[in-house]
């Protein structure tokens, strides 16, 4: 007998990732959809063989629903995730955990009170190339990590969002809050924390609106580009760039510089992991392509979330880890 799950928010992330991955999971029997736009919920219910509810309260009060994906927009996470937890549901929350640290801490409090699982969708941890890189770093195959650089950029959320419009909520300060920093940047901050088993402590950053305009032709209210220098608690130094204005192919690459060589991740379309040794040797790993907006593959996030519930174990990405990444984003954007 499988479990019933709920999805709050029926935009692109629910349609392209959460719903199909729940549908493919052998332990999930039914998906219940809620969106403020009922038509969207009904549409996804038809597509994935679930059912739609007219109010979020129906979803929270339904005793058959064991777990919930919070795919609402950023400003609503602390409300919907907290309510779901306090209603006795396990929660998988989209990133960022909340629009600020204060709201994120409210979700963690709700999780403590409820005793339910809280996982955050930092899906970069689950790719084979990142997991292989972590293994190499942990085993010190190239010695200690010294420095790093990471970037995440594409053409912007207006080409990916459900409406394909520059009226997207990602461009609105009251809803997105941190622009490209909270959309793409937080993924790479979490990734660096994960790969290095470390935490970014000091930040020097520039951010700005360089090109994006809203539906009225005015510059958007949140940053579309970030460039920063970072220092970790263990003393590693690195740089990071996040952008919604990479008007070509997506860049989702990371380089880790170690004492005995370099780890290049997602620099090459075929060899997703490349090790360049100090002595000139090169090792190429052909693992799997990175998931992009144009290439939707299973992230492994949903399977991991369901497994943590069924096996009663700590989720692969905890609320505390997501909070640590959010603290760095707050330092980067300065509010």
From TrEMBL:
<protein>
    <submittedName>
        <fullName>Gfo/Idh/MocA family oxidoreductase</fullName>
    </submittedName>
</protein>
<dbReference type="Pfam" id="PF22725">
    <property type="entry name" value="GFO_IDH_MocA_C3"/>
</dbReference>
<dbReference type="InterPro" id="IPR000683">
    <property type="entry name" value="Gfo/Idh/MocA-like_OxRdtase_N"/>
</dbReference>
<feature type="domain" description="Gfo/Idh/MocA-like oxidoreductase N-terminal">
    <location>
        <begin position="3"/>
        <end position="122"/>
    </location>
</feature>
<dbReference type="Pfam" id="PF01408">
    <property type="entry name" value="GFO_IDH_MocA"/>
</dbReference>
<dbReference type="InterPro" id="IPR055170">
    <property type="entry name" value="GFO_IDH_MocA-like_dom"/>
</dbReference>
<dbReference type="GO" id="GO:0000166">
    <property type="term" value="F:nucleotide binding"/>
</dbReference>
<dbReference type="InterPro" id="IPR051450">
    <property type="entry name" value="Gfo/Idh/MocA_Oxidoreductases"/>
</dbReference>
<dbReference type="InterPro" id="IPR036291">
    <property type="entry name" value="NAD(P)-bd_dom_sf"/>
</dbReference>
<feature type="domain" description="GFO/IDH/MocA-like oxidoreductase">
    <location>
        <begin position="130"/>
        <end position="263"/>
    </location>
</feature>
């Amino acid at each position: 007998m499988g479990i019933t799950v709920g999805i709050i928010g029926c935009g692109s992330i629910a349609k392209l990732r959460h719903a199909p991955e729940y549908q493919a999971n052998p332990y999930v029997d039914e998906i219940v959809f809620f969106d403020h736009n009922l038509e969207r919920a009904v549409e996804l219910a038809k597509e994935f063989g679930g059912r739609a509810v007219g109010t979020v309260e129906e979803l929270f009060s339904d005793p058959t629903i064991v777990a919930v994906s919070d795919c609402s927009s950023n400003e609503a996470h602390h409300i919907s995730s907290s309510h779901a937890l306090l209603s006795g549901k396990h929660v998988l929350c989209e990133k960022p955990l909340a629009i600020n640290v204060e709201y994120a801490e409210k979700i963690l409090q709700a999780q403590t009170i409820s005793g339910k699982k809280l996982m955050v969708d930092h899906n970069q941890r689950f790719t084979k190339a990142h997991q292989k890189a972590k293994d190499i770093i942990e085993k010190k195959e190239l010695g200690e990590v010294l420095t790093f650089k990471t970037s995440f950029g594409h053409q912007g959320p207006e080409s990916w969002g459900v409406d394909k419009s520059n009226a997207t909520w990602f461009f609105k300060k009251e809803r997105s809050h941190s622009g490209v920093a909270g959309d793409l940047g937080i993924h790479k901050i979490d990734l660096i924390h994960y790969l290095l088993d470390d935490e970014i402590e000091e930040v020097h950053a520039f951010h700005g609106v360089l090109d994006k305009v809203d539906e009225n032709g005015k510059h958007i209210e949140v940053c579309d580009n970030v460039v920063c220098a970072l220092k970790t608690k263990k003393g590693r130094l690195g740089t990071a760039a996040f952008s919604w204005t990479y008007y070509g192919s997506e860049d989702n690459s990371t380089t880790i510089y170690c004492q005995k060589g370099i780890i290049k991740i997602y620099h090459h379309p075929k060899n997703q992991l490349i090790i360049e040794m100090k002595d000139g040797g090169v090792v190429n790993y052909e693992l799997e392509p990175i998931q992009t907006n144009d290439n939707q593959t299973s992230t492994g996030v949903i399977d991991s979330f369901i497994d943590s519930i069924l096996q009663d174990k700590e989720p692969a990405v905890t609320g505390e880890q997501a909070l640590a990444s959010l603290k760095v984003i707050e330092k980067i954007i300065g509010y």
